[in-house]
Amino acid sequence: MKVKTILVSQPEPKENSPYFDLSEKQKVKIDFRSFIHVEGVSVKEVRTQKIDLNDYTAVILTSRNAVDHFFRIAEEMRYTVSPDLKYFCQSEAVAYYLQKYVVYRKRKIYVGQRTFPELGKLIKKHKTESFLLPSSDKLKDLVPATLDELKVKWTRVNLYRTVVSDLSNLENVFYDVLVFFSPSGIDSLFKNFPNFKQNETRIAVFGNTTVKAATEAGLKINILAPTPETPSMTMALEKYIKEVNKK
């Protein structure tokens, strides 16, 4: 079956997205919808974790959500963030986003390349610090494993959670391809539509953990990324569309 419509389970991207180029080049309709969203936990919930922000000399920031919720909870707890606090950011994107809250050139900011183990190399050089790791309720095993291996003093604090979005208005809307980037997206699909049947719908997934979640949910995976041939989802979609639409 030809592909005419695609639903990407993420917020609509800004200008110059490769999805817009794909839509135009292959003459397919691409819609965007967040299947999951983030909610901050309350100060009361944070206090039950017995965390005193004054006890930490460094904070590890793995995402923009971590940045937002660290400063949100600091404000709500009336905690004045010390100008001496050190920031360890997993990527340049996270470090750049930090400027929303601090004067960049006046703070001690350490930036990883992209992956957490790469950031770990910087953390290792500052083993005397006491690290706070703001996180969601879902944390990749790699993160605590890396920190434990480094034998640094660190504490995790859950400041936000990933929750299922309400997709009820999509109940009678059908797409040729559904695109997923996380196990949470797969979980959201079945929580919103417990009786979902794949039928002729093609499923596109990104990453090994998403593949595992989709397979365990009984879905047939038709499009997979990243691969050596198609390192991005848009490339994988384009390859598939070219193959099925030329028939």
Task: Provide a quick synopsis of the model.
With 247 residues, the chain is α/β, with parallel strands linked by helices. 34% of the residues lie in helices and 23% in strands.
How would you explain this protein's 3D organization?
The protein is of the alpha/beta class. It folds into two domains: 112 residues, Rossmann fold (3-Layer(aba) Sandwich), CATH 3.40.50; 124 residues, Rossmann fold (3-Layer(aba) Sandwich). The chain is 34% helix and 23% strand. It is built from nine helices and eleven strands. The strands form two sheets. A six-stranded mixed sheet has the order 3-8-7-4-5-6. It has a five-stranded parallel sheet with strand order 2-1-9-10-11, with helices on both faces. The radius of gyration is 21 Å and the shape is elongated. The N and C termini lie close together (9 Å).
